Each structure stands twice: as C-alpha cells, then as structure tokens.
C-alpha cells in the first residue's frame, strides 16, 4: 500500500451520542477528526429513547425540536405494592426522543465543527493500536494518533484491540406501537416503569408524539441467573397486561451494566459509552454516561496528546468520576433484582425514598448514596443479596 488514505489526529468509531460528542469536542479544539459509522445516516437505533434531564442539560446543541414528549412525572408500579409510586418535578425528568433524530442532530453538530464523517463503512480492520492507530477500510488506510471506540456493546474496536467479553449484559426487547388517540392520551401523563416484569427486571411504556415505545429488560445475568422465559414472550404478556396491541416489529439488543474488566483504555484506544460498559446498573439507562465519557475521552486527547498520556488521563478520570457511582449502583441493582422477598421488603419500607432518589439521579441533583449500615440493619441478608 503506497500510503495512508487519511491521516488524522483521532478516529471516532460509531455515530451514536458518545461518538458524536467526542468528535465534536475534538474538532472544536482544532483536531482533525474522522468519524466512521457503519450505516447510512440517519439510521434506526433500537432504544426506548428516554433522555433524562442530567444527560440533556449539558448538551452543546439545542434538541428542542427532537423531543417527542416531555415527562415531568415518572410512575413506578410493582404488583406487590398497594399503590403506584409517582414522582414529579417542574423539570422534565425524562424527555422522549427518537434516536435517529437525536443522534443525527449530534452528528450534524460534529460535522459543522469540522468532523469528517464516513458512512456505511462496512468491514474494517484495526491493524495497529499501541503506538499509533492504523485502520484498513477495505484497502483504504487510515492512520491516527488516537481512536475513540463508541461502537456499542458489540464493539468491534474493543474486540480487535484485545478486550474480552462483558461480564454482565442486560437483554432488552422493545417495540414502537401505533395506538388510537385515547390510548395515547391515557399513557401520556407519565413515563411508566413496571418492576417485576420480568421477575429480575422491568417493563416500560414511554409516550412519544404519535405512538408509544414499549419494552422489557432483564437483569437476570447481573444477579447470576438465566432468563426464566424468552423476552419475546414476556413482552407479549406485558402488552396484554397493559391492554396494548401486538407490535408489527420488535427489536432486541443488549446493554452492558458492568465496565470491562480490562479497563477503558489500552494503547491508543479509548472505550466510551456502551463499548466501555458504563450504563446505569439499576435502570440500564446509558445515555448519561455515554455523553459524559465521550467528552472525557476527547478532553483527555486535547490535554494529553503531546506526551501520549491521553489514555491514562481518560482512565483516571473515569475511575474518579464514574466508577464510584457505578459500583454503588451495582450494589443497589443486585439488591433490587436478586431476591423477590428482599425487594418486597425494601419497596414496602423504603419505596418512597427510592423513588425520590431515582428522580434526583435523573435530574443530576444526586448520585447513588453509600449504602450505610442502616440499610443493612433494615433487612436481614441484604448485604449478601447486594454484594459490592
């Protein structure tokens, strides 16, 4: 091969929110950035599309016209409880978006700042990644100083740079439902979460502009179990319980709820978002930490490019700012999903506090607290169920 087709400062793999914000921050600082997206944009992305306030408030671009519905109320239902738990706030706890529109808005922001975007990249191979980056795009060679891998839970970049598989993947299945006006109105007052559907997870109903997004997810693998029944069957039963029609199409995907054991940086490669395993271990919400980590990786390159310390800087910042929250969240997540009896007692006694806590976390006003001794005294066996 005669020479590189492109030589840039950084390659970003993946055109989701984490990749788009990383590219935008780098390009805005004057770096030459190439973003690779495997599909044509805008593309459909299976996702409930719930953007919590803490993720929305720091976006560098206005997304008002991408918002399908503002939910100032969250409803948490659990069949053991006598009544539903609701929390409300003057700020939108969850803003509903369709990912093709939301992702494309962020991509166009990165493009406007100078990011070069290559769509429908298809197969590519990472041939060098320790001292510098070299990618073979079907005979076209790209060289760079850094690579930001934002290509999701099945990250090809992570696999080719030597990372192993995730320890805990939460499977989910969702659908978009066209419903009549009365049905849409009846679900339009809140973002709905139904705990224990499936047993080690929850179902959700999110109101959009002209339809509902409905799905279920299971945390069974996080608590060391297998699925009790296929999620497609669980979704069908959940739709029946909610008196909703069967969908024409369903979309399945997985969400990593534990960071990769080998860390988030290796050589000249940094993993962000789902590629790094940074989703919330209680709710499986991934956009907040995806957006944060994308910016963190970009700022690490900006600050540590000349001395080659960007990977170390990024790993240290993730360890300092995100990992404590994820560890505490995993404790609570295992507690919530590992034992029905423990969860029943916890919700009976602490349901209101937990609902208020989740609202503050959605808003960015709080983090998961250290589970103090009073939690351990509250329920016998709680420490064994939650683990650290």
What report would you give on this structure?
- Mean pLDDT is 91; it is low at 381-388.
- The protein has twelve helices and 18 strands.
- The chain is an alpha/beta fold.
- It has three domains: 6-46 and 100-165 and 261-325, FAD/NAD(P)-binding domain (3-Layer(bba) Sandwich); 68-96 and 167-256, D-Amino Acid Oxidase, subunit A, domain 2 (D-Amino Acid Oxidase, Chain A, domain 2), CATH 3.30.9; 333-386, no CATH class.
- The N and C termini lie far apart (51 Å).
- The strands form three sheets. Strands 1, 2, 8, 9, 10, 11, 17 and 18 form an eight-stranded mixed sheet that branches.
List keywords for this structure.
eight-stranded mixed β-sheet; 12 helices; FAD/NAD(P)-binding domain; D-Amino Acid Oxidase, Chain A, domain 2; 388 residues; single chain; alpha/beta
Tell me the number of strands: 18
Order of helices and strands: EHEEHEEEEHEEEEHEHEEEHEEEHHHHHH
Radius of gyration: 21 Å
Q: Helix fraction?
A: 25-40%
According to CATH, the homologous superfamily of the largest domain is: FAD/NAD(P)-binding domain
Largest sheet: 8 strands, mixed
Low-confidence stretches: 381-388
Query: What is the end-to-end distance?
Result: 51 Å
**Structural domain count:** 3
CATH structural class of the largest domain: Alpha Beta
Strand content: 15-25%
**The CATH architecture of the largest domain:** 3-Layer(bba) Sandwich
Mean pLDDT comes to 91
Counted by DSSP, the helix tally is: 12
Query: What name does CATH use for the topology of the largest domain?
Result: FAD/NAD(P)-binding domain
Q: Globular, elongated, flat, extended or rod-shaped: what is the shape?
A: globular
- Backbone structural class: alpha/beta
